[in-house]
């Protein structure tokens, strides 16, 4: 399995998650990831408090191709602040927050249906 060097272009399903990371596109990565239609990249967020408009700017940059953003908030579900929801609503993107495992599984289903989805996933052990 190849090592992930920071960005892999294209849409890829998440093959596995846990142990502090993710497997996708025949690669593995320890840490959080941001998956958009353009590709999967390292996402430096390690806790819910680190989720900001700035940390999600790549999603806004690709807003024309994204309808839904799934945020994997770690082990527990956390409430996405109204200010963040509003910023994305203005860009035409609906945000759903859920535990990382549920977010990764939902992302895979939506990618399989060729839906316009992105996922910001905090790594879990």
Automatic annotation (TrEMBL):
It holds the Pfam family DUF498. It comes from the Bacteria. This is Mth938-like domain-containing protein. It comes from Bosea psychrotolerans.
